[in-house]
Design brief:
113 residues; mainly alpha; two-stranded antiparallel sheet; 4 helices; 4% strand
Amino acid sequence: MISYIKMKTIDDKTVKHVAHLARLELSDKELKLYSAQLASILSYISKLNEIDTANVPPTSHALTTLKNVFRKDILRKSLETDEAIKNAPASEGDFFKVPQIIESTDRVQDEGK
């Protein structure tokens, strides 16, 4: 069995460093919480490392019976534009017309002034 270094605790300095790398600001309460949670995760991983997997074949997916289904890529004629948009509630030229959901940049810039 492969021997792993067991890390049972993780200090606040390490959590602060990782938070800094991730550009996160942590309060003291969050720092203590995340330190405890990370220590718990590392402890669990340490337990998993104790399992003998020497006779377990490597897998790339949990479902070994999973198979890719392939079909021939057959060139087919597409719908004509008029046919594609004939049932659309609204169209403009050759395009579907939909309600605007994103504000224009002009409006956003005006509000920022």
